[in-house]
Automatic annotation (TrEMBL):
SUPFAM superfamilies: C-terminal effector domain of the bipartite response regulators, GAF domain-like. It holds the Pfam family GAF. Keywords: DNA-binding, Transcription, Transcription regulation. Residues 214-279 form the HTH luxR-type domain. This is HTH luxR-type domain-containing protein. It comes from Caldimonas brevitalea. SMART domains: HTH_LUXR (SM00421). Gene3D superfamilies: 3.30.450.40, Winged helix-like DNA-binding domain superfamily/Winged helix DNA-binding domain. One of its GO terms (molecular function) is DNA binding. InterPro entries: GAF, GAF-like_dom_sf, Sig_transdc_resp-reg_C-effctor, Tscrpt_reg_LuxR_C, WH-like_DNA-bd_sf. PROSITE patterns: HTH_LUXR_1, HTH_LUXR_2. One of its GO terms (biological process) is regulation of DNA-templated transcription.
Length: 279
């Protein structure tokens, strides 16, 4: 379900005024180009994520970029909601890696006000053994990560990697990455996520399916995830949801994992409780 064109236009105008009309709003001049491209894709949050990772990979000259919606209250975070890699068949994908969001490195990342450098993955003591092994298996040698916040709320995580060979991170690159993430990506991706909220649906307007406000990260869910979440709130089983939405069991399972991560819920039952307004 596409957002209302009038609302998209209004958000584009607001963001253009905030990011492009005032040159001082964006420190890295090239990041203004990124903002322009993203505003053209504002009606599709996933397209914004994909373009952003591809653009950063090219313009920062790094081996791999990945990012996605995340919440500090979630038990885990799945890498590579969006991912871009240098054109080299030797650079592995991060898909399938799940991070313990309660590990020391992740807690520090969420608490930091700026990008965090992990110079040597093999020697980073704050990583859990599982995360270190997964990253090394994916060829990661060093990483810069940043937590994205918008309007005082957590939005997601974004990372850039050196893969297969160790390279020193330049200060200019660190500043460009951090500036593009906080000054451009955070506000634009937040707006795109909010615009993706369905406006007219009986399922979402029922008391059991409509959360009170946005404290549980409802605006981070995609329209497809909202349809699944609404049925969860009604007490439907995985099989019932799959049958009603004409989706495979594995697709529903994947969407529910994503929903739990975005809402910071440890279980599907907790998702139902959050959406029903219970604590």
């Amino acid at each position: 379900m596409r957002p209302d064109p009038g609302e998209v236009l209004a958000e584009q105008r607001r963001l253009r005024a905030a990011l492009l009309d005032r040159r001082a709003a964006v420190d890295w001049p090239q990041a203004r180009e990124l903002a322009c491209h993203l505003l053209l894709r504002l009606d599709d949050a996933d397209a914004c994520w994909r373009f952003a990772t591809e653009w950063l990979c090219e313009h920062l000259d790094v081996d791999r970029v990945d990012g996605g919606y995340a919440h500090p209250g979630a038990a885990t975070y799945r890498l590579a909601h969006a991912q871009a890699r240098r054109e080299d068949p030797g650079i592995p994908s991060l898909e399938g890696i799940t991070v313990d969001n309660r590990g020391a490195a992740m807690l520090y990342l969420w608490a930091s006000q700026r990008a965090v450098v992990f110079d040597d993955i093999a020697q980073t003591a704050s990583f859990t053994p599982t995360l270190r092994a997964d990253l090394l298996r994916a060829g990661t040698r060093s990483k810069i990560a940043i937590a994205l916040w918008a309007d005082g709320r957590p939005l997601g995580l974004l990372c850039i990697d050196h893969v297969l060979r160790q390279r020193e991170w330049r200060q200019a690159l660190f500043e460009r990455f951090g500036g593009a993430a906080t000054q451009v990506l955070a506000p634009v991706l937040w707006a795109a996520a909010r615009l993706g909220e369905p406006r007219r649906s009986v399922a979402y307007e029922s008391p059991a399916a409509t959360p009170s406000g946005d404290p549980v990260g409802w605006s981070m869910l995609t329209p497809a995830e909202r349809r699944v979440a609404a049925l969860v709130a009604e007490g439907r089983s995985y099989k019932e949801i799959a049958r009603q939405l004409n989706r495979s069991f594995s697709t529903v399972d994947h969407q529910l994992r994503s929903i739990r991560e975005k809402l910071g819920a440890s279980s599907t039952a907790r998702v139902a409780a959050l959406l029903a307004g219970r604590r």
